[in-house]
């Protein structure tokens, strides 16, 4: 079922529902930060993307390349120059430099080609955020919510989500984590609907290291709503 590019980018389709769920940051690398070893990456998001796609009969792509090497949510033209980003390690925020290795240029180009080839009508990217602000899930539709056609649509999407999932604190981002600098969305949203979904890291840690059932449900429901949105 799953196909691979260079054994690093996994993708597949479970049907012809035109929704694509991308997890660009599944890859993890060990880095020395402030004298400590830190695992940089968003493990678990690939699993969520895959199961969400399977749930609706859509498609998924998971990059297992660590973002420190090549950040698949950044501009390919910037690869090798280094991109600064904020990362939450045990509640402390650090500024790190990702996207450093030009050897991934070819693979990154193929990844963008694959998104165009799959040609979704609704494009989602799944991420995992440091959960210091108490929010469980954030939707990002760009600063003016232009990826979903404006604020009214963004709030309607959130309203429908909350009809099906309870017990989670959900926000539509305005500035922080709005997906404005997310190159996957920025470069592919035209002519389609697109959105960034940030799941709180807290939800990945509950229940002895297993992913919380609520986050699994949320990942499925977002894809479900996306499929209905473009039906
Ligand atoms: Zn991410």
Supply the key terms.
231 residues, Aminopeptidase, 28% strand, binds zinc ion
Overview of this protein structure:
- Helices cover 29% and strands 28% of the residues.
- It contains 6 helices and 12 strands.
- The strands form 3 sheets. It has an 8-stranded mixed β-sheet, sandwiched between helices.
- The chain has helices spanning 45-56, 105-118, 151-164, 183-188, 202-205, 213-229; strands at 3-5, 9-13, 19-23, 29-33, 36-40, 59-63, 83-89, 92-98, 122-129, 137-140, 170-172, 193-200.
- The chain has 231 residues and is α/β, with parallel strands linked by helices.
- It has a single domain (3-229), classed as Aminopeptidase (3-Layer(aba) Sandwich), CATH 3.40.630.
- The chain starts with a strand and ends with a helix.
- The structure holds zinc ion.
- Zinc ion (ZN) binds at residues 25, 42, 127.
Form type:
globular
| Helix-strand pattern | EEEEEHEEEHEEHEHEHH
Bound molecules: zinc ion
- Mean of the pLDDT scores? 93
Distance between the termini: 25 Å
Structural class by helix and strand composition: alpha/beta
The percentage helix is: 25-40%
Largest sheet: 8 strands, mixed
Low-confidence stretches: none
Q: Report the radius of gyration as a whole number of Å.
A: 16 Å
Q: Note the beta-strand portion.
A: 25-35%
Structure at a glance:
This protein has 231 residues and is α/β, with parallel strands linked by helices. It is 29% helix and 28% strand.
């Amino acid at each position: 079922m799953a196909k691979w590019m260079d054994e690093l980018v996994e993708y597949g389709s479970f049907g012809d529902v035109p929704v694509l769920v991308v997890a660009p940051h599944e890859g993890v690398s060990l880095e020395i930060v402030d004298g400590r070893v830190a695992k940089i990456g968003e493990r678990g998001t690939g699993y969520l993307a895959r199961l969400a796609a399977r749930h609706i009969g859509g498609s998924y792509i998971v990059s297992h390349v660590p973002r420190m090497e090549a950040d698949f949510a950044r501009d390919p033209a910037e690869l090798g120059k280094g991109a600064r980003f904020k990362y939450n390690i045990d509640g402390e925020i650090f500024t790190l430099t990702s996207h450093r290795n030009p050897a991934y240029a070819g693979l990154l180009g193929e990844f963008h080609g694959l998104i165009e080839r799959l040609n979704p009508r609704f494009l989602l990217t799944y991420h995992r955020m440091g959960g210091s602000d108490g929010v469980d899930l954030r939707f990002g539709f760009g600063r003016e919510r232009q990826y979903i056609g404006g604020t009214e649509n963004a709030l309607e999407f959130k309203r429908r989500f909350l009809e099906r999932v309870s017990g989670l604190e959900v926000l539509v981002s305005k500035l922080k984590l709005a997906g404005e600098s997310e190159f996957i969305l920025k470069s592919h949203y035209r002519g389609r609907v697109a959105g960034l979904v940030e799941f709180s890291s807290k939800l990945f840690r509950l229940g002895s290291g297993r992913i919380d059932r609520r986050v699994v449900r949320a990942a499925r429901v977002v894809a479900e709503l996306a499929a209905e949105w473009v039906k």
